[in-house]
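Structure in, sequence out. Go:
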């Protein structure tokens, strides 16, 4: 038997299985006496071999989820000082608790006390974390020892499951950074195989300009960061194919309303005809707006009447209502107001009649909300007087489409998000069915705002549709929020991958985080930016991981300066040479 201080030749040896009354070994968890010449830390993957009476071996593997050190031989608080001075005989003893992740073969017997415990490496580690059973794998990040943490692609692309949910304190948990890192591993790695060329992503940028430089290399990209990407089998650099869109500014010219970046950004808007024909009006209302059935009925009736008017109008960007051409959003509101006026002969067609007629107060409440929305959304809906709308429509031509909303009012943000979510589902539904369509990822931050726990709205219904039905169409939701407890439970429950960054301690105790172990719940309050805890279906214990610093710039100050290419010309890394290196289908290359 190994005695304290003896270091076996086996470098992976860490200690012996404990069998004390308070730390008895069980098939699902056991404790380890840690050899004083070695150490175990949280998140280490260990394994122990148990010999059965028939001579066969059972491999029990798990993850260290607690480490304790105590002073044996002392009882009083002040004895620590006496032991330090050599007056009391005492010695330090360290033990670690292991939460079992896998038993192979599945003979659930407890490891016997005194059996050696070793670090799991190579194929043993792959078995412990079920990596060996993952037919298609992608990188989730790096373990603390620098080894890759893998995810099962079949639980992300819709084959067996789908969707990712990320929680954490704003500004500390790096939720958006991790979401874009996941996309980078999929688009720039080999996990998607032949589907990679047709895989796409839609990202809503709602905070600052963080996502407006995904196509530019980060000036802070040094050799250490490049080495971390290399250990994941990835190049270190920006995304290869990105399209940027921002709402147009007020005025006649369709100039994108962005901050420090204008070049390469397309200003977007919709025509009055699209607004009416495609039923965009409900997206102007929030959960609180549509809290009564009467108001909801008016919204539905007016939306239907506008669709009829649009379909009967001559071709073009404008709409004709009762032979009157409507050319601006304000004129459209005036026409709606006139048709809802109780004194109008047409009111019964727009707001019902008799017992079904909307109350005057309800109609007025509807128009107040419409007028309020006009101040923030009016510039996004334009008539024929605007520039060519075809050149200012959000197109999913690039692999990654970033729609910048950070300068829009909250109501306008909801409007854009709702329209695009519905459009993604409609486009996918119109395609021929296939067993494994190329995935279309949708990244939505502030999920609690768009799909709150209570209430209903068109945007929430669109997100629920993606969460519950998107898997079969290859539409994958990557949702992020500060508090999962404030999000519609069905959306969180449908996420196969659940990720947390730094959490508020009180939030970590909510029912939505029961998948975390007690130790992980405590650690979530201490995580630094760049560290996440990830739970996935096949691994019974959530794993702590780190992800590398972004290879793409996250703000204007991080954009690397232009470099000189092999022909002596000066240009940045977004030029054609780099696009050909990373590109997976950029139509402009």
């Amino acid at each position: 038997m190994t005695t304290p201080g003896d270091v076996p030749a086996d470098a992976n040896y860490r200690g012996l299985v404990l069998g004390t009354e308070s730390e008895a070994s069980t098939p699902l968890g056991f404790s380890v006496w840690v050899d004083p010449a070695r150490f175990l830390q949280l998140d280490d993957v260990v394994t122990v071999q148990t010999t059965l009476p028939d001579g066969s071996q059972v491999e029990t593997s798990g993850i260290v989820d607690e480490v304790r050190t105590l002073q044996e031989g002392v009882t009083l608080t002040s004895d620590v000082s006496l032991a330090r001075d050599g007056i009391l005989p005492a010695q330090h003893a360290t033990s670690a608790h292991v939460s079992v992740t896998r038993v192979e073969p599945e003979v659930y017997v407890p490891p016997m006390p005194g059996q050696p415990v070793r670090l799991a490496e190579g194929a043993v580690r792959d078995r412990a974390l079920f990596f060996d059973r993952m037919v298609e794998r992608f990188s989730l990040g790096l373990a603390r020892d620098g080894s890759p943490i893998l995810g099962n692609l079949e639980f992300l692309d819709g084959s067996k499951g789908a969707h990712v949910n990320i929680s954490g304190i704003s500004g500390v948990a790096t939720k958006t950074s991790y979401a874009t890192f996941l996309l980078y591993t999929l688009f720039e790695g080999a996990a998607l195989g032949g589907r990679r060329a047709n895989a796409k992503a839609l990202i809503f940028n709602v905070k600052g300009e963080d996502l407006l430089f995904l196509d530019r290399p980060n000036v802070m990209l040094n050799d250490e960061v490049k080495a971390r990407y290399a250990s994941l089998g990835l190049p270190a650099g920006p995304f290869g194919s990105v399209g940027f869109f921002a709402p147009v500014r007020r005025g006649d010219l369709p100039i994108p309303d962005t901050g420090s970046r204008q070049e390469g950004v397309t200003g977007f808007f919709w025509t009055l005809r699209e607004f009416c024909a495609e039923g965009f009006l409900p997206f102007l209302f929030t959960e609180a707006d549509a809290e009564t059935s009467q108001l909801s009925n008016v919204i539905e009736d007016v939306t239907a009447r506008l669709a009829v008017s649009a379909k009967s109008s001559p071709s073009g960007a404008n709409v004709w209502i009762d032979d009157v051409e409507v050319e601006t959003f304000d004129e459209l509101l005036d026409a709606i107001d006139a048709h809802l006026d109780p004194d109008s002969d047409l009111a019964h067609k727009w707001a019902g009649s008799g017992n079904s007629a909307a109350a005057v107060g309800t109609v007025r409440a509807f128009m107040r909300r419409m007028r309020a929305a006009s101040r923030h959304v009016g510039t996004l809906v334009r008539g024929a007087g605007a520039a060519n709308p075809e050149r200012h429509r959000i197109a999913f031509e690039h692999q990654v489409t970033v729609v910048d909303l950070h300068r829009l009012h909250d109501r306008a943000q909801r409007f854009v998000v709702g329209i695009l979510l519905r459009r993604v589902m409609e486009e996918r539904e119109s395609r021929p069915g296939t067993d494994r369509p190329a995935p279309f990822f949708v990244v939505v931050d502030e999920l609690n705002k768009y799909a709150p726990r209570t209430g209903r709205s068109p945007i929430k219904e669109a997100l629920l549709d993606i969460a519950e039905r998107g898997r079969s169409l290859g539409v994958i939701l990557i949702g992020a929020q500060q508090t999962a407890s404030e999000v519609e439970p069905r959306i969180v429950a449908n996420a196969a991958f659940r990720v947390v960054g730094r959490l508020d301690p009180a939030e970590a105790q909510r029912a939505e985080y029961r998948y975390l172990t007690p130790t992980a719940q405590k650690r979530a309050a201490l995580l630094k930016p760049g560290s996440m805890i990830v739970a996935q279906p096949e691994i019974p214990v959530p794993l702590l991981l780190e992800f590398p610093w972004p290879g793409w710039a996250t703000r204007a100050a991080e954009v690397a300066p232009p470099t000189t290419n092999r022909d002596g010309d000066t240009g940045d890394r977004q030029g054609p040479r780099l696009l050909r290196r990373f590109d997976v289908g950029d139509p402009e290359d």
